[in-house]
């Protein structure tokens, strides 16, 4: 019970700084104050609890999104599709492997890793493809398009462009004799 009571006040703490010095023994001296603080703490409990629950769910969701098995059930052939297309591409032109790892780096170039380096301009918005540092310099869009069309045929609207670029970069490096890593 004492544990429950401590947690109750801990969760309510951000809104109830004065509770830090609250002593239940004062209840006999100031019954009105006791009632007031008790009610306020009870009223704050759902807010604190809700915030904690939402935070926990977000933490779980973030972990799930970073799993290497994220597409294991929704797009089980993803890894083999990417690898087979990249194998053809680098066999034809080994430099494309270098271009793919650069594309992966530049995917986080404009305003960090948000959006995608694959975005074209629209009439109302500048895309990343033609941003400074990317325009007329990056290569490999055709390889990504080839992967993307095969991935879309296998599992429609499931795999993100960023994940395709990350897998393509990894496979380019490993197929050209470099190290490999889990994506
Ligand atoms: C801020 C740091 C960097 C700068 C300023 C920079 C700059 C450049 C420039 C100017 C080129 C030549 C582009 C052209 O010929 O049009 C280039 C090519 C390249 N960069 Fe970087 N780079 C940086 C970081 C990186 C990183 C971190 C990687 C790898 C993850 C990388 C990989 C490459 C590759 C592979 C090429 C050759 C691409 C190709 O032949 O298609 N660079 N870089």
UniProtKB/TrEMBL annotation:
Site (Transition state stabilizer): 102
Chain coiled-coil ranges: none
Annotated GO biological process: hydrogen peroxide catabolic process; response to oxidative stress
Pfam families, per the entry: peroxidase
UniProt keywords, alphabetically: Calcium, Disulfide bond, Glycoprotein, Heme, Hydrogen peroxide, Iron, Metal-binding, Oxidoreductase, Peroxidase
Cysteine pairings via disulfide bonds: 75-155, 108-113
Residues noted as binding Ca(2+) in the record, renumbered to the chain: 107, 110, 112, 114, 116, 128
Xref: InterPro entries: Haem_peroxidase (IPR002016), Haem_peroxidase_sf (IPR010255), Peroxidase_pln (IPR000823), Peroxidases_AS (IPR019794)
One annotated GO molecular function: heme binding
Plant heme peroxidase family profile domain sequence ranges: 65-183
Positions annotated as active site in the UniProt record: 106 (proton acceptor)
Cofactor dependence: heme b; Ca(2+)
Catalytic activity: 2 a phenolic donor + H2O2 = 2 a phenolic radical donor + 2 H2O
Cofactor note: Binds 2 calcium ions per subunit.
Domain of life assignment: Eukaryota
Protein family according to the UniProt entry: Belongs to the peroxidase family.
Official protein name in the record: Plant heme peroxidase family profile domain-containing protein
Annotated source species: Ensete ventricosum
